[in-house]
Amino acid sequence: MSEEFEQRISYYSDRIAAKLDSVLPGPEVEPCRLHEAMRYSVFNGGKRVRPLLVYAAGECLQVPESRLDSPAAAIELIHAFSLVHDDLPSMDDDDLRRGLPTVHRQFDEATAILAADALQPLAFSALTEIDDISSDTHVQLVQLLANACGSIGMTGGQSIDLQAEGRTLGAEELEHMYALKTGALIHASVMSACLLAEAVPPDRAAALDGFSRALGVAFQIRDDILDVEGQTEVIGKSAGSDVRLNKATYPGLLGVDESRKRCDELLTDGLQFLDVLGTAEPLTWLARFIVDRGK
Fold first, then answer.
1. What is the pLDDT of residue 233?
2. Number of domains in the chain
3. What's the whole-model pTM score?
4. In which domain, by residue range, is 71 found?
């Protein structure tokens, strides 16, 4: 396509919103309060970075859009589930998410837990709605997302994060935590498109794997920098929460300047992986947008 990926973001945002709306039960469906909380946690102004990565990778691999809608929705549902849990009093105890009251503040703690719990199986249900793929590919998609959100992925990373409060982690330990906590779902976003493409050569699959892993760590380091430098009304959540909770972070270990430097290094490394694809403008643009946000 001749236009930049930026020009297609609103189109894809509308597409994923429509898909999420069709997957989520309406607020009039019993249990109404639970379904209202689920929808509140999903339709709260997020940038939809992970679904956009699914579509961007799909463009690079010429995957039909209709085949990408379900995994894009599934990954966003998992992301929403994780944010609801992260914000709970037993975790980060946050009052704001994307400039709005967190789910447990808007509703109550029990409803927030149940809403998040319901979003997770709904994500896997969404994956069943892809019609034109083999059963083997379906299994691979389920395994990819399960690994990304389980104890060897996002949930495991959150566990390490909680255990590290008040401790000093080395740079390698921090990047391992980031690779699980944030990177695993970003990796799944890119690789789900790879699974849905037609016979991707091993070198291209390896390139997308390397790109997505570098991007995932860079994303979290940028998030840490924004927590230090950002303003609550801009970043949409309480600024300085990492310091308040005494979390192990890159800026806390090495300072903001070194964190910026590492972010830029990871972005450069990630983009170099894409050279083998030839034309990869959608992923290149989106990666720069993700890592440079807030600059």
1. 47
2. 1
3. 0.93
4. 5-292
